[in-house]
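Deviation from plan, reported transparently: nicotinamide-adenine-dinucleotide complex.
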Amino acid sequence: MRIAIIGGGYVGLVSGACFAEFGVAVAVAEADPAKRDMLLAGRIPIYEPGLDKLVENNVAAGRLTFPDTLGEAIAGAEAVFIAVGTPTRRGDGHADLTYVFAAVEQVLATLDHPAVIVTKSTVPVGTGRKILEMARQLRPDLAVEVASNPEFLREGSAIPDFMRPDRVVVGAESERARDVLRQLYRPLYRLERPIIFTGLETAELIKYAANGFLAMKITFINEMADLCEKVGADVTDVARGIGLDGRIGKKFLHAGPGFGGSCFPKDTLALMRIAEEAGAPSRLIQSVVAVNDARKEGLASRVAAACGGDLQGKVVAVLGLAFKPETDDMRESPALALIRGLVSRGATVRAYDPEAMATARPLLPEAVILAETADGALTGADALVLITEWNEFRVLAPARLRELMRGDVVVDLRNVYDPGPLRAAGFSYTGIGRATP
Ligand code: NAD
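Because the crystal trials were delayed, the predicted structure below was used instead.
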């Protein structure tokens, strides 16, 4: 089978490489010439573990190509996946569908054979039906079908998530569309991964409901962490105590600085708007958005409190910048709000991230110093603030911190350190929702 993917970003590139690995001929159309040139030169524009090798192998096998034009990419494709961005629209929180509709128009203008247009981008409920109307209007001469196939991969583990998903969701209303998707995902049947077939609107809503629920779970445990701090309880034990209950589950119960990233912030906002417009507003999701925003804005105050209330003239080492480990993605990273707050309180910030320095630089205040190593950030620092739990930060020994730092404040926004040894070494340790002796 031959397919095309429009958009060679995180989702487009990972899906393209993984479908190619399944044995499908995949052409990825990427509009950004700089990204396309990189891909053609065998370089990957994003950091994602294992992606370079997977792309290289499938390009070498002739199954994965990056044609110059969208027309070349969709030639002979049975399915055309739309994997372009759907960022938050300025001003109102809705998903901005400019890229999606532009891509669909380009596809419809160029297509010369029947095909299924599949939305892999996260799109508001009703978008698939609009695409179907566009197809009927613009190309009445062609049998164009529409399907929704939302993507649930997580950055940092995108390839295993795509290859062994908990489930695949397909919204489609014609047997042909269902057949094409069934064939594409056939390798997953052997792994007994369920494929759920639904209508278009249901598939679109499943994606938002999943992200809304996960964002709510994170926000819930963050609120419990705040309560723990007030009543002398420990949120890591609370999370374990509730997470072992099969009805609740252990995942997404790590208290921290608030969620960021390319999906949860924009998808919760969009879900809020979708629900409002449909006349069924979600007060839960509205609260999740407000509580999470306030949490991120309050991070610098937490650090200031740990430093005795005043950050003027203090050197703060910030470890981690990406919104989570194993990615260089800075979209809505909590580190951005933290660092802005630290700088505005007069701190000198020295930051380090193993992968996200280049993506972070243009988003950070100029005064922020980017260190070349974690040690470089920590040398002479009054305080260490850990915000992204890369493995190399987990193993920092108290004795080493003592050698490097001039101060004794450790603010662990991910609860990765054992407070005992740090306190024994004379550090003042502040975690999230962990009782202070
Ligand atoms: P991205 O910004 O990394 O990639 C989008 C790419 O599409 C860009 O490279 C852009 O240049 C390209 N593009 C835009 N218009 C084009 C056109 N007309 N023709 C060819 N290329 C075009 O975005 P992403 O993170 O991959 O997200 C894509 C979609 O997938 C979004 O709707 C997002 O919500 C959803 N999603 C993302 C993730 C994730 O972890 N990143 C996970 C699940 C779902």
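The pocket of nicotinamide-adenine-dinucleotide is lined by residues 6-12, 29-32, 35, 70, 83-86, 99, 102-103, 106, 121-122, 151, 153, 155, 262-263 (CB under 6 Å). We consider this an acceptable substitute for the interim report.
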